[in-house]
Write a structure and sequence with these properties.
About 30% of the residues lie in helices and about 25% in strands. The protein is α+β, with helices and mostly antiparallel strands. The relative contact order is 0.12.
């Protein structure tokens, strides 16, 4: 190739600075298309060759017209959707401009929870029992045959946003009446008590080239709806949960047609029978500083690797991930009452990172000893809750822990 690789980054939220910098350092021509409201966000402008602002990067057909106009005079090699909310738009643009990557149908597997469950079930991947919120007699049959409680989930929200717990059939119908024409954008599934894991990967050539497995403290749904401290810890590579979930994740990504990029998948391990069930997957880097948790454990930054794997594919060069360490890490984050919480008293030698964000408190600990990580995370979770924790109501009226994605 006698010109730089051209990457168009689509971002409805401020994120992906490490990807942008890594792409530029690798010699790529970086184009950022983002929302007007993010004009003053601290984008790494020294690494961005062109920036375009739209009222809404996911409004169609406006974004297709804008990107197609750019394509008249620029050869776009790849389109990267940096946020989960941009996944479908990115897929539509690739389909329209015939650019390699996730297209419309495959893209829905990484955005629409109903599409995820149907595809997983077809592929023999265990999922919680579920039913689309479309035909009401199907809902009645589901509630008659599947013991409650159940979860009413938006099909296209991120993480735990908008999920409602349904404890009795009579509770469901007023909610559906309230939703009106929006109710078909939901599904309902059995509530499975258990530990929730996330599996974060870099995919190259249709196979995970790098995989990290972590386990949440309190499941994100419980933190989101009840407030509290968000906790996640890496799982040792030799642990049985790591082996089982890495294998399940590989099968999942193969079945879903993921060829290249970053993925963040979630599975639940049932407290009843110890089985693993797929919950959801996104074609993006995990939020809530999970990328930093993994980087401290392995030396691998998922944003940077996402840029590297895309550029290697365009150039037709080999790609591999180099991990230069194997530590155990834990992350704790919470909303804080104070504008700038003072974490100076959290001074264990294993503290390797502190969050610097208004009305948030958080840190990462790292150690060769997983027991030491457990000890520190347990202690710091209790202290953060006592020293700083604030709870506020999100959309839908439940309590929110800021930063979960």
């Amino acid at each position: 190739m006698d010109r730089p690789v051209s990457l168009l980054c689509l971002a409805s939220y401020f994120k992906g600075e490490r990807l942008i910098r890594a792409a530029k350092e690798a010699g790529a021509h970086v184009i950022l298309v983002t929302n007007e409201k993010l004009h003053d966000a601290p984008w790494p402008m020294e690494s961005i060759d062109e920036r375009y602002l739209l009222p809404d990067v996911n409004r169609q057909p406006d974004v297709t017209h804008a990107v197609a106009f750019l394509a008249r005079t620029r050869k776009l090699d790849r389109i990267l959707a940096l946020d989960e909310f941009d996944t479908v738009t990115g897929a539509q643009l690739r389909e329209h401009l015939r650019i390699p990557g996730l297209g419309d149908t495959t893209g829905r597997h990484f955005r629409d929870k109903l599409a995820m469950r149907l595809r997983a079930r077809e592929a023999g991947i265990p999922v919680p029992e579920f039913v689309p919120v479309i035909h009401h007699d199907d809902l009645r049959s589901f509630m008659d045959s599947v013991p409650g409680p159940w979860l009413l989930k938006p099909r296209t929200e991120a993480s735990a946003m908008g999920i409602r717990r349904i404890d009795a059939p009579g509770t469901l119908w007023p909610i559906l009446e309230e939703l009106g024409d929006r109710q078909s954008y939901y599904l309902m599934e059995a509530y499975v008590p258990g530990d929730v894991f996330h599996v974060d990967s870099i995919v190259a050539g249709g196979q995970p080239a790098f995989t990290s497995v972590s386990v949440y403290g309190t499941p994100p749904l419980d933190v989101y709806q009840g407030g509290g401290v968000f906790v996640t810890k890496t799982v040792p590579r030799r642990h049985g949960d790591f082996t089982a979930l890495a294998r399940a994740n590989e099968s999942l990504l193969r079945a879903f047609g993921m060829v290249r990029g970053a993925t963040h998948a979630e599975f639940i391990k049932s407290r009843v029978d110890g089985s693993y069930r797929f919950i959801e997957v996104a074609a993006r880097v995990g939020g809530a500083n999970i990328d930093l948790l993994i980087e401290q454990a392995t030396g691998v930054n998922l944003w940077e690797e996402w840029a590297r794997v895309e550029i290697a594919d365009v150039r037709g060069t080999p790609y591999e991930v180099v991990s230069d360490r194997e530590l155990h890490t834990g992350l704790v984050v919470c909303l804080a009452r104070e504008e700038w919480p003072d974490l100076g008293g959290y001074d264990a030698s294993e503290v390797v990172w502190r969050l610097r964000k208004k009305h948030h408190a958080g840190l990462i600990v790292a150690s060769p000893d997983p027991a030491r990580v457990d000890e520190l995370i347990d202690a710091y979770t209790t202290r953060l809750a006592s020293d700083f924790l604030a709870v506020k109501p999100p959309l839908g009226g439940a309590a929110e822990m800021g930063g979960i994605e």
